[in-house]
Design goal:
Strands 2-5-4-3-1-6-9-8-7 form a nine-stranded mixed β-sheet, with helices on both faces. By secondary structure, the protein is an alpha+beta fold. It has helices at about 10-20, 40, 80, 85-90, 115-130, 145-150, 155-165, 170-175, 190-200, 220-240, 250-260; strands spanning about 30-35, 55, 70, 90-95, 100-105, 135-140, 180, 205, 210-215. The termini are far apart. It contains eleven helices and nine strands. It has two domains: about 1-115, L-fuculose-1-phosphate Aldolase; about 115-273, 3-Layer(aba) Sandwich (L-fuculose-1-phosphate Aldolase), CATH 3.40.225.10. The protein is elongated and about 60 Å long. The structure holds Dihydroxyacetone and zinc ion (ZN). Zinc ion binds near residues 210 and 211.
Amino acid sequence: MTKFVDSPYVLNMREVTRESYNRYWDERNGGNVSYRLLAEEVESYEDVHEVKASFELGFDASAIAGYYYLVTGTGRYFRNVYSRPTLDLGLVKISADGQSYDIVWGFEDGGKPTSEFPSHLMSHIERLKVNPEQRVVFHCHPTNLIAMSFTQPLDERHLSRILWKMQAESIVVFPQGIGVIPYMTPGTNDIGVKTSEKMAEFQAVLWPHHGLFASGVTLDETYGLVEVIEKAAMIFSQVGAQGGKILQEITDQELQEIAEFFGMTPHAGFLDL
Ligand code: 2HA
Ligand code: ZN
C-alpha cells in the first residue's frame, strides 16, 4: 500500500499552488484551495484511517457529511507547499452530523485548514446543488482583477462584459459571467454565506480589493478559470496602459455567436442584443 503523500491528488495540489505562487497570485499566506476526494480515492491509502484532531465548524455542513477535502493550511505559504506537503496540506473528513471535521492526514506540525474554510465549504455545498461533480474551490489574489475592483463599478453585468470583451475565449469559459460581493472581512462565516449565495449563479466570485473565489470540477478546470479571468483583466490593464481608447471591439452580437458556436448560454440580460 502506498502513502497518501505519493498520491496524484497531493501532486496536483503541489503543482497548482506552485504555479499560482509563480504568477504572483499568492504572496505570503495569500490563497487557499480545497479539493473534494471520493472515499474510494482516499481509503485505499494506508495512512488516512486515524483521526489526528477534530474541530467544530461553527456552521451546518450536513449537506457534505462524510466528505473528504484535501485543503491548504491556515497561515501557510503557497511558496512552500511543493516542498513540504505533509505540513502545509491536510486531508479532512466532515463528521457524520456535519458540525465538525476530523484531520486524518497532513498538517503534521499541528496545522489546521485555511482561515477561509467556511467560504470554501459553503461554496462547495452550493455548487454541488448546481453540479454533483463539483470538487474544487480555489481562492487567490489575481493582480489585475483586484486592480479592476478599484477602478470599475462593482457591478456583475459591467465587470462580466468587460472581461468577456477582452478576449474571445472568456465567454466560452465563463458564460455565466462573474459574481461580485461587497467588500467584507475575510475569514468570517458572513463572507462565506455571501460568497456561497453567489455561487448558486456563478462559478467565480470577485472579492473586491482582495481576490477571487473560483469553483469547478477538477483542479485543472478551476485553475484554468482563474487564468482566463485574470488574463482578460490583464488585457484590460494593458489597454489602459496603451491609452485606454477602444478603436474596435468584440460586439455583443459576436459574443452571442461565439457562445452559440461552443454551445454555451450567456448569463441572461448581460448582452445587449
Ligand atoms: O489564506 O488569502 O483570504 C489567506 C487568504 C485569506
Ligand atoms: Zn485571500
